[in-house]
Amino acid sequence: MPAVEVPVVVDTQRRGRLAEYAYEYTKRQLFDGTLSPGQKVRVEDVVARLSTSRQPVMDAFKRLAAEGYLDIIPQVGCRVVVPTLAEIADFFLILGAVQGMAADLAAARRHPDEIAALRAISASIDTLREADRDDDFIAAIRPLDRAFLHQITVMAHSDAVVSVAHGLLDRSDFYIGCLPAAARIDATRPMHAPAEHRAIVDAIDAGDGDRARALVEAHILAIGKGAQAFPLPEFA
User: Fold this and answer.
1) What is the pLDDT of residue 4?
2) Which regions in the chain score pLDDT beneath 70?
3) Structurally, how many domains does the chain consist of?
């Protein structure tokens, strides 16, 4: 009797989990500045760091390339994209418009528990002292400001708004991570303006969509101006 050939079953579910893990790991390095614009990113390095196989890492890199964070160059490898100041300026205009719209919708659709959550994040921002503007301070304030803006998008009660805003907030982290230290300080300065955050919460709580939109847009544009205060470094 001829031998029965047993098909090899590929554990696509496991591969998907490993690819997600590699994706989140690499993205975190992009956002915290560990990987700089223009820097080569080697599949082998991530494979060794995560103790996984090549294919999930390659899947993760393809996803990051599709999202605009990596360039995949045939026969050469991968490198982090190199943004321009014009791209960064345009980006913060878009982010301001989306977040402003979310604030307008949040003012119309707010719930008391959501307002309480937004005020709690604002209170956490209040506790950070502006005088402590060092790398540790920047590392602390960025996720708080992002959480504040994300909470506003959640309060818009629109899956489309949440989806779009989430991707834009990711890119905001990436662009700020690309900046030299002095520019990162200027870019994060509006993030620790307690009166500004409280004014946004008050406008949403009062149902004043126009004021909420204007305040959020001004907040985002101030971050963008800070990001352009210094020229980008020369990337290899």
Assistant:
1) 46
2) 1-15, 129-135, 182, 229-236
3) 2
Count of C-beta atoms within a 10 Å radius of residue 135? 11
With respect to residue 233, please indicate whether it lies within any of the assigned structural domains: no
Of 80, 102, 132, at which residue does a domain stop?
Answer: 80
Helices 12-31, 43-50: axis angle to 10 degrees equals 110
What is the number of other CB atoms lying within 10 angstroms of the CB of residue 230? 17
Q: Is residue 2 assigned to a domain?
A: no
pLDDT in tens, 42-54: 999 999 999 989 9
Task: Check which CATH number belongs to the domain holding 112 and give it.
Answer: 1.20.120.530
State the amino acid at position 73 in one-letter form.
Answer: I
Consecutive H or E run containing 71? strand 70-73
Domain range enclosing 64? 12-80
For residues 150 and 100, membership in a common domain is answered with yes
Residues 71 and 153 in one domain: no
pLDDT tens sequence across 174-187: 888 887 776 777 77
Q: SS3 for 151?
A: helix
Beta 77-80 vs 70-73: how paired, if at all? Answer: antiparallel
Burial label for 158, CB within 10 Å (0-12, 13-18, 19+), is middle
**pTM of the full predicted structure?**
0.82
Show the tokens assigned to 26: 């690499």
Residue 6: the pLDDT is 42
The whole-angstrom separation of Cα 199 and Cα 155 is 16
